[in-house]
Protein: Sulfotransferase
Amino acid sequence: MSIPSSVTSAAGRLLPKSLHPALRVMPDAVGQATRRGRALPTFLIAGGQRCGTTSLFKALVQHPQVAGPTLRKGVHYFDAGYTRGLDWYRAHFPLTATLRALGRTAVGESSPYYLFHPLAAERIARDLPGVRVIVLLRDPVERAYSAHAHELARGFETEPFERALELEEERLAGTEELLCADPAARSHHHRHHAYLRRGHYADQLQRLEKHIGRDRLHVVESEAFFATPEPVFAGVADFLGIAHDSGIAFERHNARPRGAPMPEALRGRLRAHFADADRRLADWWGRVPSWRG
Structure:
């Protein structure tokens, strides 16, 4: 059975979200049948959530040397799908022969839960030795507010922002231990309701460094990427070992406007909450993040 060219792209371009579900199954089936001839990623965008991962990924897959998964930007293998096995994961990427013919040397995906999931880093290190990992970081106060709007819009949150913050410790209690104890376990609260804890960036970066190595991590400040994307993207290209390209169109994806700005009193409390986490990030990174500058 042939697959219409509008359904998938051998170069790893994303399929439109509007594509009929029945048509989206076809590339999945072909990927599984040909999985042994498919590439594994050379890079991952691991997060953080609501930090511009989609925007960076969509910029990267415009590059003539870069390919992504055939169906979606993120496969979520190293967090929620690890029990499916490496062959299942490989089936989501383009054929090695096609990549070689097109001159695409970098293959990657973007799953923002990889940074926060407690087992993702060691799984990545085990299955993708040599992979390079990009992490985007954003002002944790703004990230938390944006994450709440995102989860609210998706139906994964029902509480207003301040109440969700109050509930976070109770919601997340025991979830990390559960995920570490059972490889098949999933936690709705851990994945969707960690508004504060996801902003403790140093803890997550240290875990990645432990398993991946500092030299294979590249940290991007989201504010800089959106303000001056060209030089930031050039740094990403250098990290991935691909040529600089002036033909990339930079756009902001998945932005969700809030109905009202955050109350200043709440902003002040959150700024105080993240003060120590930001200091530890600055120590790890060797620079003060712009939101503390």
